[in-house]
User: Fold this.
Amino acid sequence: MAEQLNNETASGLIPEPVIVHTEHRWFLVMAILLGVMLAVVVLTGAAQMLHPSSAVETVDPRTLHLEGEFVESNLGTAVEPDGSVTVRILAEQYLFVPQCVIVPDKTLVHFRLTSADVTHGFFVQSTNANSMVVPGYITNVRTRFENPGNYQMPCDEYCGFGHHAMAARVTVVPKDQFKNLQPDERTNCGAQ
Ligand code: CUA
Assistant:
């Protein structure tokens, strides 16, 4: 076989069985790679609660400041009857409103965001919260913070000249401490 191969290769022709064998081998390698990649997508999606695009709820970006859940007085953290919290944030060129939100640790946190102008990005450091914020739609992301601390929340979608400076912060405090905050201290932690 090797003898034959050398002779044939020397003459510039590779025998058909060798080509078929090689192609089968590469096909097998590709099939295994595809299988591994598919498994990685499915397993990490399930295990780390990755978020598929959540843009299914619509909202009119022209009237955000006038009516509905994204009016300024309704932004920030709200405590739900079941003990979870909902955080409403408005993204606009080039800031998030509010600039800093405060949430309890070890609690389900439901983020709801929308944009007043262009597409922005929503990402919270060290969590699975990472999604686009598209005008006309509401971005829904659920997560939990196990440890208190400050988490950076930069815009991670290029949105214009001020994109690099567009960032907010999530301050996570222990559950008991959060409970003792005044209602106005709970909604946000001010522009910082
Ligand atoms: Cu907003 Cu980048």
